[in-house]
Design a protein that fits this description.
By secondary structure, the protein is α+β, with helices and mostly antiparallel strands. About 55% of the residues lie in helices and about 15% in strands. The protein has 11 helices and 8 strands. The protein has an 8-stranded antiparallel β-sheet with strand order 4-3-2-1-5-6-7-8, covered by helices on one side. Helix 1 packs antiparallel against helix 11 and helix 7 packs across helix 10. The longest helix has about 45 residues. It is elongated, with a radius of gyration of 26 Å.
């Protein structure tokens, strides 16, 4: 019963997550193909990069009347810098405009992150319902984990009666589909557990960020309590230089401007990353005074945020390049088969039981005189 109902309740939403997750595995490649991931011009060896202040001025000139929220250094394309502008510094993230700029020429390369992949992402993350949608999908993900564990418990006695991977071709179609359901389910169980667990963790991202802001960040900015927002902003090039000095051996991932979601109203936050496959996913915030650019504080993120940062690329198979993405896509398709076959088996069982219940009812019904 646990396996049946945990699966049934979450079935439609799991199918939504699997179907939308499939193209998201290849979102970089699809965005590039459709022109939503612009590439910089090929630069000459030793070419000097433009200042970040110049790129910021160019971004503001291209989006007149808006303000900068973030500047991001593309990890996969070192020659690209992405500027986030919005109507106000604490504006709705969905209202932000993302434009890429060539790091060597400061020329605009085009918009980033739009197109069909954005629709797939919103459906996959929160079904266009914001935080309630995230938490609801997290609950469905938890039911998915319950269904996986209970399915393994049910499959264990079966393996003692039959050889592994037994498909009873001579039996009815329902029994054949049951065998395939069990086989594909057990083959994909480790992947499904990993993706399901990381998916549930990702739905808590906003709650984790709020917890960090209420505790760690609040402690870091406590000496600046009561100070007004900066009347003028420090040079971004100075902010970048001081952030690198504060985190030796690390490179900058993105800068959050004062008043945005990831910092206080008085500070720049430079989030630094390492240079290995793992450490490049982990971020270390460096807070800098918004007016002077001086380093105010720097602390490692708490373990729960580090777990979140590690789980995000694992969820989409974004650790091992194209070979791992292909494996993730194949396992995603197999999971769709498991979910679909489970629904078919439940419906087939109900159809089979319906005549039996009707006969039993007829036998109990009084015979008219």
């Amino acid at each position: 019963m646990v396996h049946t109902w945990s699966s049934l309740i979450s079935t439609l939403f799991l199918l939504l997550l699997c179907v939308t997750g499939l193209p998201l595995i290849f979102h970089h490649e699809i965005d590039e193909l459709l022109g939503y991931d612009p590439k910089p011009e090929v630069s000459q060896p030793g070419a000097v990069k433009r200042s970040i202040d110049e790129i910021a001025r160019t971004a503001l000139a291209n989006d007149s009347g808006r303000v900068l929220q973030y500047i991001l250094w593309d990890k996969d394309e070192p020659g690209t810098i992405v500027a986030f502008t919005n109507n106000k510094v604490d504006g709705d993230p969905d209202a932000a405009t993302l434009r890429a700029y060539d790091a060597h020429t400061a020329k605009p390369l085009g918009s980033v992150g739009g197109g069909p992949m954005l629709i797939f992402l919103k459906l996959h993350v929160d079904m266009f319902a914001g935080q309630p949608g995230k938490l609801f999908l997290g609950a469905m993900g938890f039911l998915f984990l319950v269904a996986i564990v209970s399915g393994v418990v049910l499959y264990w006695p079966f393996t003692r009666r039959q050889r592994f991977a037994t498909i009873r071709d001579h039996a009815s179609r329902r029994v054949v589909w049951l065998d395939w359901h069990n086989l594909i389910g057990v083959v994909t169980v480790a992947w499904a557990l990993a993706v399901g667990l990381t998916g549930v963790i990702n739905t808590w991202a906003e709650l984790m960020l709020n917890q960090w802001k209420a505790t760690e960040l609040a402690s870091m900015v406590a000496p600046y309590a009561g100070k007004p927002p900066p009347s003028h902003l420090a040079s971004l090039d100075g902010v970048v230089a001081r952030a690198k000095q504060a985190a030796p051996g690390m490179e900058i991932a993105f800068i959050a401007f004062p008043g945005t979601l990831f910092t206080s109203s008085h500070h720049f936050a430079a989030f630094m990353r390492g240079d290995t496959a793992l450490t490049s996913r982990l971020l270390k915030p460096v807070l800098l005074d918004g007016e002077t650019g001086e380093v105010a504080d720097s602390r490692a993120l708490p373990l729960y945020l580090q777990a979140l940062l590690i789980s995000q690329p694992l969820h989409f198979g974004d650790y091992g390049g194209m070979p791992l993405k292909v494996i993730w896509a194949a396992l995603d398709v197999l999971t769709i088969v498991v979910i679909g076959s489970g629904l078919y088996l439940w419906l087939a069982r109900r159809r089979k039981r319906a005549p039996a219940r009707a006969d039993a009812f007829a036998k109990r019904a009084p015979v008219p005189s």
